[in-house]
Amino acid sequence: MNHDGKPVPISQIGHVEMRPEDPLLRRRDRLLTITVRGDIDESLQPPQVSVEIQKQLAPIFPVMIVIILQTRSFPTMAMVFLTGPLGLIGTVATLLLFRQPFGFNSILGLIGLAGILMRNTLILIEQIRNNVHDEKRDPYHAVVEATVQRARPVLLTAMAAVLAFIPLTTSVFWGPMAYTLIGGTAIGTVLTLFFCRPCTRSGSRSNRRPTVLPPVHSTR
Q1: Gap between the Cα atoms of 203 and 75, Å rounded
Q2: Residue 9: inside a domain, yes or no?
Q3: Domain count, the chain
Q4: 91: Cβ contacts below 8 Å, ≥ 6 apart
Q5: Which range, 55-59, 144-148, 212-216, has the best average confidence (pLDDT)?
Q6: Beta strand extents in the chain (DSSP E only)
Q7: What value, to the nearest 5°, has the Cα angle with vertex 85 and ends 106 and 82?
């Protein structure tokens, strides 16, 4: 209404726009927070839940078949899979340090992180086999030499991956995944180099240590 009591069109004083908006914005520690709650579906039975879990685990078996074809050994395949969770140590520490949420993007980063670490393990195992079969080294020296030979390329690849994900840390959506891959790749790669040595030696049939010869005293 103007001073004369006549109506004034809204288009003369502003712009009307319809868009969705949350009626109430909740904050925790000055951060926008959405609380999601869930409950057990009473219509589902335990066998149905087991079937759904098996469907989610089904994609793992093709990965196992590929690794078996590459390693040609079940113990070696088990060792490759055991190196996958090593990235959790660096991931958890990084997410807690930078106060990042552990959501869908972080889980997606963990899947990619497991592939990176298992690939590094396959590279080390292949080098160990080459040292044993081609260079005729004993298992102890084969493991040590393989770790030394492959440490530089593995660490350089991990460093390149860490530097590549740094720009994504500024993204609100992709930030948690970037932090997951940065911390998990950096810490997990170092742990993989130390983890493969005892596992490979314990899995080999011969764990011979280098023989230390006694000192020879020359007499005149």
Answers
A1: 7
A2: no
A3: 1
A4: 106, 109, 110, 113, 179, 180, 183, 184
A5: 144-148
A6: 27-28, 31-32
A7: 155
Beta-bridge mates of residue 28: 31
Percent of the chain with pLDDT over 90: 15
Q: With bands split at pLDDT 50, 70 and 90, how would you rate the model's confidence at 204? A: low
Give the range among 5-9, 156-160, 200-204, 207-211 with minimum mean pLDDT. Answer: 207-211
> For residue 150, is it within any domain?
yes
- Domain range enclosing 87: 74-203
As given in the structure block, the two tokens for residue 12 are 């003369």
CA separation for the pair 165, 167 (Å, rounded): 6
**CATH code, domain with 86:** 1.20.1640.10
